[in-house]
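pinned: reference chain
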Amino acid sequence: MEEQQYPHWTRHVEWLSAHRGQIVRLYCARCQMVKAYKVDEALAQEGDVSVRSFPVLIARLLGCSRVDRLGAWQGCDMTYLRPGAFIDPPKPKPPEQIRLPIGTYRLEEMPLSAVPEYYEIIGYCPCGWRRQIDVRKLARERPELTTATANDMLSCRRCRNRTNNFLAYRLAPR
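pinned: its structure tokens
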């Protein structure tokens, strides 16, 4: 099979597909906004674009009103976050290696309805993401749930992991 010939100007263009499996981080100095996207998801949604035009594409998708204005002082300021605009995704740690903050403990096996009122329940993911969970509401909706079955139901919003997630608790402030 013969290799397709491209015009001379496309030889030195860096494409987004060269960074498959990585995360791209963007920053807008005017809006004080930091965004991170998985390159594979961006490729599936928008197709392969040049790395140089990707921040403008993201600014348009976010609805920036300055993206098409001319002039450096009026235009959009979306650019790559330096250093390391393209990074590898974080590697999940085994649940045993996750260090919980002081005063936070893993929740042992019990029905969700038996969790004391003065506990704040937090769901942890091995990637480091954590989120507070309203256990009272969950226990009212599904009274048969235990903490072990709730661990299996947890899904991380950052890395979309559904395994090795766990519940922890800390005492609620009075």
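why pinned: DSSP finds four helices and eight strands in the chain. The two ends are 72 Å apart (CA to CA).
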